[in-house]
């Protein structure tokens, strides 16, 4: 029994490591887009872009029963992206 739960948790650890790496890559790009936009006086938030992202996510996640939960995680990622950008403007 203990062995089994350890196996699941070890699998989750691996997936989390991959997720963190991908999120670092996403935030690296967010850092760059923030600098690009700040120089050009473009606001942090783009509701138009966010609606495109969410539309795309809804399509890509069409077939999974986890869609609702993953969309909520995605919304939080975008929220944190905006927070990072606002905290890192001069
Ligand atoms: O596309 C942008 O302009 C971004 O700043 C990136 C991003 C995102 O994290 O995907 C963040 C804020 C915007 O409201 C839209 C999208």
Automatic annotation (TrEMBL):
Pfam families, sorted: CM_2 (PF01817)
Biological process according to GO: chorismate metabolic process
Residue ranges of every copy of the Chorismate mutase domain listed in the record: 1-89
Domain of life: Bacteria
Gene3D superfamilies (UniProt xref): Chorismate mutase (1.20.59.10)
InterPro entries noted in UniProt: Chorismate_II_sf, CM_dom_sf, CM_II_prokaryot
GO MF entries: chorismate mutase activity
Designated name of the protein: Chorismate mutase domain-containing protein
């Amino acid at each position: 029994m203990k062995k089994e739960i350890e196996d699941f948790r070890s699998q989750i650890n691996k997936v989390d490591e991959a997720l963190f790496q991908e999120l670092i890559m996403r935030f690296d790009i967010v850092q760059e887009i923030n600098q690009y936009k700040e120089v050009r006086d473009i606001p942090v938030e783009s509701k138009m872009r966010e609606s495109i992202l969410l539309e795309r996510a809804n399509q890509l996640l069409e077939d999974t029963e986890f869609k609702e939960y993953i969309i909520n995680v995605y919304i939080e990622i975008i929220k944190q992206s905006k927070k990072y950008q606002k905290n890192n403007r001069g």
